[in-house]
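Bench notes, afternoon.
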Amino acid sequence: MPFGVSTHEFDHLQFLPVLERMYRTNRIDEIKNYASFSQVDRFRKELETLEAFGIHKELDIRLDQSQDSKTAARKLTDGKVDIILSVSNAKIQETYRDGQNRKRHQRKIRHAFIESTVFRTNQTLAYDPHHPPHCLNCGGQMEAESENYFCPYCQSHYLAEAYEYKMARFFIEAAFHNFHYALFFFIPIFLMAILQVKGILSEWQIGLFSYLGGILLAILFFLALIKGLMAIIRHQGVLHKIRRHDPHFSGEIFTTRLIDSLARHPEILLAGKNRQAEMSGVICHNITGLQFERYERKGSLEIVECRGKVDALYLEGSPGRVRLRERRKKITLRMARNYGTLTPVHYLPDQFTCPHCGSHQVSDYEGGLVCRFCQTEIPVERIDWVLYNL
C-alpha cells in the first residue's frame, strides 16, 4: 500500500476555523485539542517570531460550497502509525499587519491546496483507559487525566499513545506553484511564429529548428529521467540501511522531526545573512521533495544526509520597519542518532524511560535530557534524530 487507499475516515476541515481563531487571538489554547505536541510547538514558535517583529497574521480561508466532494484523503500505514494525508481546494489570503494595523505583507492564492497530515498509533495502548495502571516511578495508583494519566504521589505525568487522530503537519501550497517556468517552453515557439509571419524565417528553417528543438527536449527528458532514477536508488538504499536495525522506521515521522528541528534552529536557514545591522527571522512552513542522499556510520552514530526544498517566510528589519517575503530554498542537511536507536511510537509528546533508574517521564527535546529522579543526563541522539554539525 505505497500510496495508501482513499478514505473518508477523518475530516481535516474541522481545523480551519480553529486556525483562523488562533491567528486572530494570538493564542494556541484551542488548537491543542486538535494538533500533536510538535505541531503545537511549531505554531507557538511562529506566533512568537511574529510577535518579536510586532506583526500579527490574519488567515482567511474560503472553501467552495461543494468542498466536501473535492477533499481527497489517502490512508496508509508507515512504520508505527496510521497516517491520513488530506488535500482540499480553497482560496487563501494571508495578511500580515503591524502594531498600527498597517498591512506589511499579503499573500493571495486563488487556487490553493490545504494539506494536512494526521497520525494515530496502530500499536496496542500501553495503558488501559478504564483501569489506570500503577506508577512506574513510585508504584502508586495513577489517576486518569483527560486522555492521559497522573500520579498524585510523585507528580509524574504519563501520556498515552495518540489513539485519536492528531494533526502532525499543516501547510498551504499554491496549486500552480512554479507553473510560470512552463512559459519558457512557449517563448521559442512564440518567437519563431513572429519571425515566420514577418518573413524572416522560411518554412524549412522553422522545420529545422523544430527538429533540433525536439532532439534537445528528448535529451533533456532522458537526462532528467536518469537523474530521477538515481535519486530514487540512493533514497531506497539509505532506507534499506536504516531498516536493517529499525524495521519500522517511519519516513513521515522523520520528516516531521526534521521540520521540528528547523523550527527550533531557524539560524540554519539564515546562514550567510548579515544579522548585525538588523534583526532577521524565519518561519519554516514545510519541506517538500525530501530525498535521502547518503548514509554513514561514524563512531556510535548513524548519519543521514538529505535534501529538499524548504518553504519559509523570511522577516528582516525591526518592529515597525519589518520586511517579509516568501521563499522556497534548496537545502542539504544531516541528521544523526545513536546506532541502534529505534523510531519511537508516536506519543504526544514522545516519552522515554531512564536507562539508569527506570523512571518514566516526558521528553522535552531541548538539549540533553536530565532525569528528574537520578539526575542522569541523556543525550537526545540516544532517543531520536538530531541535526548534525550545525
